[in-house]
Known about the structure:
Protein name: ABC transporter permease
Largest sheet: 2 strands, antiparallel
Number of strands: 2
Shape: globular
Radius of gyration: 21 Å
Transmembrane segments: 21-43, 63-87, 99-126, 146-170, 190-216
Helix content: over 70%
Strand content: under 5%
Structural class: mainly alpha
Pfam family, one: ABC_trans_CmpB
Strand order of the largest sheet: 1-2
Number of domains: 1
Keywords: Membrane, Transmembrane, Transmembrane helix
Amino acid sequence: MDTKETKIDRKSQTDGIGSDLARLFLMFMLISCIGWCMETAYVLLRFGHLSDRGFLSMPFCPIYGASILAVYFAVGTPQGSVLQPLFAKAKGLPLPARAAAYAGLYLLYFVAAALIPTAAEFLTGLFFDKLFGIRLWDYTDRPFNILGYVCLPMSALWGLLITAAMALLWTPLEKLLARIPQRAAKAVAFTLAALLLIDFCGNFIYLCATGAHYYLF
């Protein structure tokens, strides 16, 4: 029979897991928003006009958040990843050898950071194109593209951005989100999840009804 202390411990563990999941979701949303801002700024600076980026109406491109979290769960951060033992061994090497070892290890991480979002981008582009006949992006004018869904320059950019973000930004953002009280983190995460679901369903219904993507601007 469970004692009162056992029940309290279980509740604390459940609350802790719930808070961790809430903060991971907030990280997902934050990075998705940063990705939307980057794409919007790029189009504005290059073409001189605003463009409604992504599938959602809210300012989020979930492929950014999903890719970052996928990389985090697959390999972690560069020096806190599956490569950590190799980084630890490299510390004892002479400076030239250490620099070469670090460069090689970061290159391995870069490859993983490029492949994961490239796969996500290909599957997402293929899904919307073949099922609904719309292209959320088109790389047919870029070199080394595959059916216009992915291309080598964009894959390299994915790898560079994710490697830099995981090396420089992940830990500070993680610490920042950890400062949010448990209840507040859960409330904000729940609200954003509900809005995200409503946004996706609304756009999906519009797409099925009209055969076209709904653009705010």
